[in-house]
Specification:
Shape: elongated
Number of strands: 0
Order of helices and strands: HHHH
């Protein structure tokens, strides 16, 4: 399994994009500053991608189960971040 193929095909890239989008939304809602939220979300998504690579190496699962597990983890984190953003916006009003 080559890393570029793994990270560009299947459900993982789509789930990672949703996670990155909702991370930016949640950080923007919490900080109230786009200039702070954008670079912070970029750094956190990059750190998460590196952590995902490290965990993939430790788990040594077959190709498709690893893809679905990682995609599910990104989607669960994205839903949690959507809840955080919603709470931050509601608390402000």
């Amino acid at each position: 399994m080559a890393w570029p193929y793994y990270e560009s095909h299947g459900p993982v890239p789509f789930a990672r994009v949703l996670f990155a989008l909702l991370l930016g939304v949640a950080l923007g809602a919490l900080t109230r500053h786009t200039r702070i939220a954008m670079p912070l979300s970029l750094l956190l998504v990059g750190a998460g991608q590196l952590a995902g690579r490290a965990l993939r190496g430790l788990l040594a699962l077959p190709y498709w189960p690893a893809q679905w597990i990682e995609a599910a983890a990104h989607l669960v984190l994205a839903l949690l971040l959507a809840g955080v953003a919603l709470l931050a916006i509601r608390r402000r009003t």
